Amino acid sequence: MSRLLFSDLPADQIALLGHSHDPLLVVLSYLVASAAAFTALALAKRVSRSGSPRGRDLWRWVGAFALGGGIWSMHFIGMLAFSAPLDISYDHRITLLSLLIAMAVSYVVMRLLGRDRLSVPQYALAGTAAGIGIAAMHYTGMAAIRSLATLYYAPLAFAASVLIAIGASIAALVLGYHFRASQSRHQHWQRLLCSLLMGAAIVSMHYTGMHALTLAVPAHMLEHTAPFGSHGGQHAVLASAIGLVALLVIVTGIAASWAEQRFSEQRQALDQAEHQLNAMTHYDPLTNLFNGRAFTEMVTQVLAAREERQALAVLVVDLDNFKRINDSLGHRSGDLALQQAAHRIRAVLGQHDMLARFSGDEFCVLTLGQWEQAQALANHILEQLRPSPSATPSCA
Q: Which of 21, 140, 246, 349 has a C-alpha 20 to 30 A away from that of 323?
């Protein structure tokens, strides 16, 4: 049985002394908690950046499995690190229930980290709910203890452990949002440092809860208690196995995150290459206008989509004697002349008119409207391309 101890122990109960913790298992529990925190921070970015609802939900479950399994493993390793002067065993069903609570709380945390933003009240409410859930996981795991003793908890230490769980949960949400948006080249080291701090907070919650614990037995049963030593080696092996499994789960989560990151980088590279290829096949690099192929496709699409009575016109601009510029002044001057011509034509086009460099010295304009409007536009283009009266022969 578990009870809060608001006063002295009942007269028929005697507190058992001689509690201790295995230092190696305490350190192992801390490493597992830190690794779980690191995984949660790493996967938070994957949740927010996943392009599909199915992908986001998959990463939420991966994160919940890694984070929840890590926190629960830390708790169970800490429980197995605890030794008392009587035999202790655990109810498997209640132990499994504590694991399910850890998974459920972790899934909620991953869902929260996948949101665009949280307000300050939402941070407080979500952190409080997650902290209470983690505390529920811890004390449910404690309720799985089966022994001759009754479990009593000091109220102040009990409340402190719950507050630590809430504080650690709020910190996890704040840091999760921070590192999700961080672009610093040192973000991995920052994430590692914060994971160690969060691991310390999670472990502090557990061992504060253990500090609140008092094991008491009726006086007439005292002779039935025996020094807790015969199962210490067995519990150490079991705790090590749990820690190994937890680390494997967390490493799997990190590896999956790394693989998804690599896939995302490759996908971005492919998109960039496709964009560059599209630019090469549809744009003229000299004038940055559509090329002949793109213009032909564009005209075909407009003809297919236009209304039955909608008029359109295609204007062809051919620069006379352009070859003389290349022959007399060089290709660099010819390129500048083409760029200047493109600039002048574009200056008189309307918002919906489309311009392309169809071939070497030919430009095409697609304009929507009646014949009179097309004729007026053609005259504007000719005026733009005519040399000014004050131009010198070399410039003309």
A: 349
